[in-house]
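Morning. Coffee machine broken again, so started the prediction first thing and wrote up yesterday's gels while waiting. Chain of 299 residues, entered below exactly as on the submission form.
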Amino acid sequence: MRTIWKGAVTFGLVNVPVKVYSATEDHDVPLHQVHDKDGGRIRYQRTCEICGETVAYSDIDRAYVDEGHTVVLTKDDLSALPSEKSREIDVVEFVPTDQVDLLTLDKPYYLEPDSKSPKAYVLLRKTLEQSDRTAIVRFTLRQKTRLAALRVRGDVLVLQTLLWADEVREVDFPALHEDVSISKKELELSASLVESYSSDFDPEEFVDEYQKELRTLIDAKIDAGEGFDVADTFGESDGADKGGEVIDLMEALRASVAKSKEQRAKAAGGDSGAKDADEKKPSAKNTPAKKAPAKKKAS
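Came back before lunch.
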């Protein structure tokens, strides 16, 4: 991993030097645009609308337009801002972890100790663990002041940026104001359905099906060349699993619970069946050896 920022977490008079790393990466299959007529690569160029020249990124400044008046902000202007010069991750407050709305969580970063002794780092980590608190911090990264949650993941401190309050849209759906009656039986069946799907979350069990299918598609086209047929690769869809409005909620709940139980019973039966089959297999010690077929004489 490559360090993207260096600074220090500060709270009170305590200073914790850290290195910052991006905690996630994109696993999507890289695709680029081409002309459908001849397959030529489509490239984008930054062109000045006044002189028509192609402009290098290093020669580009920012600007803000206010009532027809353009204010140009150079790189020197932006770097002169006090917040941009700061290298501190300033703890504003420590809040109960359950008060951090998951909707506001944004980009995560790993923090690595950046001093000869990690004592201050470990102290902060243990304090957060034992108090079940999350630190709300402010810092500046890539010309933006950011609000973030500082929390613990295993042995590592994780800094996860938060959306600002005005970046989260207010919602008011009229349908949610309707007076809806839910029966006790419906709640029981719904709870039973939830229970039938209950499990411990293991992220490793889930894969990105779209990227997997995309890779299969690419490999198939490479192998088949001009003779490629999508139907041969993925098979025809019978359209059986079509979504639609549920008319009878009770019947849908009953059917869902029954289907879930049936699937779990099959899965359990398959495991035990395989086990029984293994136990019934004769051991190599008790199995009579098969005679090798006689070799044919050469004519």
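The mean pLDDT is 83. Going to sketch it on the whiteboard this afternoon.
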